[in-house]
Amino acid sequence: xxxxxxxxxxxxxxxxxxxxxxxxxxxxxxxxxxxxxxxxxxxxxxxxxxxxxxxxxxxxxxxxxxxxxxxxxxxxxxxxxxxxxxxxxxxxxxxxxxxxxxxxxxxxxxxxxxxxxxxxxxxxxxxxxxxxxxxxxxxxxxxxxxxxxxxxxxxxxxxxxxxxxxxxxxxxxxxxxxxxxxxxxxxxxxxxxxxxxxxxxxxxxxxxxxxxxxxxxxxxxxxxxxxxxxxxxxxxxxxxxxxxxxxxxxxxxxxxxxxxxxxxxxxxxxxxxxxxxxxxxxxxxxxxxxxxxxxxxxxxxxxxxxxxxxxxxxxxxxxxxxxxxxxxxxxxxxxxxxxxxxxxxxxxxxxxxxxxxxxxxxxxxxxxxxxxxxxxxxxxxxxxx
Length: 385
Ligand code: PHE
Fold this sequence. Notes:
Order of helices and strands: HEHEHEHEHEHEHEHEHEHEHHHEEEE
Bound molecules: phenylalanine
Shape: globular
Radius of gyration: 23 Å
Number of helices: 13
CATH class of the largest domain: Alpha Beta
CATH architecture of the largest domain: 3-Layer(aba) Sandwich
Largest sheet: 7 strands, mixed
CATH superfamily of the largest domain: Response regulator
Oligomer: single chain
Strand order of the largest sheet: 7-6-8-9-10-13-14
CATH topology of the largest domain: Rossmann fold
Distance between the termini: 68 Å
């Protein structure tokens, strides 16, 4: 009997000790800020993307912190500039994980950079949300990798159908960036849908982000007489390509995607961007209250209008915040599960019904028409997933 009583006492003591330790951990966790690592290209080839995304992230974090944070804890941003290089993206995420000990990671924009860094987050079991990388392979890296945007097969398919059925275009030339996973993936999915539905790809040409001139490719394209050119690239090259195409008297529609979205595009392309359409995540002229509220707050804070990057950075933080609230912990595994369970999330880039089995957001895309006379993308239509 004595033995049984002492065993009972030991168990009681152990349980109490354990409870005490848990309580302590909780209190300790409670006063510390939640550390959010952010990695972006802030100074390189597509730094406009990084700057806009960081602004969106910052606005969301400031809003959340002003309301007392999450379960009593503030959010703290740890920003790293990867200069747009995939190797550097990997290195800075290693630093965020091992030195800054972040609880979650937001980044990158360019799919190639997200692909390079995602294995580090996966290995460390730190949830990573790419706000805007649309290449399908990004989230396939592992179960800790999510994205706040739709994927390129949806985006490519949407433009292919729009070109065929809305613009009545039958012959398309593709001009893509060979060094970008994003561009290559998008070209492939556009081509697949377009040809399956009866369209013809008359020629495919490529460039790199360091090419200063595109006239050689454009001259070849002109010879094959397309009704339109699909350019799945980033704004820095697209603006110049548009200008050079018009100089060669090629006045057909130019079709593109989210990578065109930057105020820089107007400076580079100007009037040459007339007669162009893109698929995108965000329309600033969407009258929805959440969108207009976000746009107004953003303009007040940063003195510029938000683009898709800013909107997706903002949404990525709120997706994370929503999951943190439900998880009630920063534990990587529990936080990952909570993100995966996101349902009916209303963001400024549209409603995410859920994350699918590949951790990709299921949400609509918009088609925008370019209006270079006003330096504006004008809302055309919404395409549901
Ligand atoms: N989707 C692009 C990529 O994966 C990045 C991007 C998103 C660019 C949104 C502009 C706007 O590389």
